[in-house]
Specification:
It contains two helices and no strands. α1 runs antiparallel to α2. 8% of the residues are buried.
């Protein structure tokens, strides 16, 4: 899962009417944790993605 897929996933969460902002934040934190602690790689920049309001 690269930056394009991460950005698409987080944007999908942002536009879903049943997802709260905290869910999107938790997903982002889980992805960063997976990269840093499990894969042992720098997650880098995911770029701009829509944020849940």
């Amino acid at each position: 899962m690269g930056p394009v897929e991460v950005r698409a996933f987080l944007t999908h969460l942002a536009v879903s009417p049943t997802v709260s902002a905290s869910t999107q934040n938790q997903a982002l934190n889980a992805i960063v944790f997976m990269y840093r602690e499990v894969i042992r790689r720098d997650p880098g920049e995911f770029g701009e993605f829509d944020r849940t309001q």
